[in-house]
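Hello,

Our lab assistant flagged a job as stuck in the queue for most of the afternoon. It eventually completed. Since we weren't sure the result was trustworthy after the delay, we are filing this so someone can double-check. Below is the sequence as submitted and the structure that was eventually returned. Let us know if re-running is recommended.
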Amino acid sequence: MRLDALIFDFDGTLAELNIDFAWLRQEVHGLARQLGFSDQWPGGYLLEEVEALAGELGADFAQNAMAFIQQAEMDAAARGRLFPFTRTLLAQAREQDYSLAVISRNCGPAIRKVFPEVDGGGLVFLPREAVVKPKPHPGHILDACLALETPPVSAAVVGDHPLDIAAALAAGCLAVGVASGRMSEDDLRAAGAALVLPDAADLLARLKYLA
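-- returned structure --
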């Protein structure tokens, strides 16, 4: 198997941002209650829940909720950091002729705060606002493959969450899990990752064993 491209999730994979998603969901639900919402919550991931509630509560709710989410991401980014291995990993991957992308459900401004050079250095960068639907929708990954001019079968998606694994498999890519975020190695294996690592530091060496 020849891999030509590596598509990295950001938060939990290349960087530590520490967003409190449980608190964030509570705050967004509070905004909905202020507008009179008293029905059953749609469930699922928060961005998709906001989209679903917007159909009932209107565009103002969606705009306010997304502004709140983005501010929470920016606050987390102010406290965030790249993992120590990230820049070395990306540089070595470029030296080995991999095409590289960084994708995220987070907003671009928050990621740029932690990783200012994400828009350069030969990286394709697709934060949530750059795609129609963010992962776990496979379109996020397929857009990255298109930008990299690489077929999905020749790309590996590296992420720290089962949604990254699900998106990779739905897009037809190799799924690599890293337990450097909120999920355990067992969680990532159960989601279907072909390779699971403690973090992405030794990714390139481990990929050679899959060739």
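-- support follow-up --
The delay was a queue issue, not a problem with the job. The result is valid. Residues 21-79 form one domain. The longest strand covers residues 5-9.
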